[in-house]
Amino acid sequence: MRPSPARLLNILVPVKRAVDYSVKIRVNPQQTGIDTNVKHSMNPFDEIAVEEAIRMRERLPPGTVKHIKAISIGPPKALDVLRTALAVGADSAAHVALPENAPAPEPLAIAKTLASYINIQNSDPAKVEKDGKVDVVILGKQAIDDDLGVTGQMLAGLLGWGQATFASKVEVDVGKNEVVVTREIDGGAEEVRCRLPVVITTDLRLNEPRYASLPNIMKAKKKPVEKLSPSDLGIDYTPQLTTLRVTEPPKRVGGGKVGSVEELVERLKDAGITGV
């Protein structure tokens, strides 16, 4: 008989529905933000997070990873990215539903939502019995639409958990109750050792996400999706920041040729550039 693992892991993977990476971004006519009437998909860094959770299950002894749950905060269309996560291997999902035209939640509100969800999950005996306590959160280091890259750090702070950001390699030792993460830094790599529970944010070089097969896409439709509202978690999504205006960067102006160094210096002086 195979011995049971020293600890069962329950992984929560937050995913975001963002403008697809292949879309050319344009500012909307009102200059209040980008045009969102375009193709959307799962944020690429979150795809890597989902893949890493699945690979963690495959690498560790059978039964070590008890449950993988994806969670998304957004309008009804956010269900699309949850179904994608379920199709590639997540066991269940949770959707914190926002109105269709609601402004995108700010990172602190997202972190508070995730922290509230985890605290409720980990303190409810019925939920713990069903899915277990969340002890690993894996999410993308940033979203490609706002590029803020702070949600994971805020979440770890709110929970009082260890954090390992910009992960390019993740190794879990359930016997020692710890995780070792290799993270990219300027000029090399840094190895961080954290005790569980932990928040991990993923970098591009961590893995290459798999594609969902057609049979798994069909099976994903039968996997459970928990529906929640902001009031269920006690979260206020009122924006703390106001965007005054969004404009596209100025178009580059073509250069010109000069016949000599002297002419170049004169043109630089005419342009108001000193020190030449």
UniProtKB/TrEMBL annotation:
The UniProt keyword set, sorted, is: Electron transport, Mitochondrion, Transport
* Primary location group: mitochondrion
Question: Where does the sequence pass through the membrane?
Answer: none
A GO BP entry: amino acid catabolic process
Name all Electron transfer flavoprotein alpha/beta-subunit N-terminal domain ranges.
Answer: 32-237
Q: Which SMART domains match?
A: ETF
Matching SUPFAM superfamilies: Adenine nucleotide alpha hydrolases-like
GO cellular component terms given for this protein: mitochondrial matrix
Q: Where in the cell is it found?
A: Mitochondrion matrix
Q: What Pfam families does the entry give?
A: ETF
Q: Which Gene3D superfamilies does the entry mention?
A: HUPs
Q: Does the keyword Transport apply?
A: yes
**Complex and partners:** Heterodimer of an alpha and a beta subunit.
Task: Give the record's family classification.
Answer: Belongs to the ETF beta-subunit/FixA family.
Q: What is this protein called?
A: Probable electron transfer flavoprotein subunit beta
Q: Which organism is it from?
A: Ephemerocybe angulata
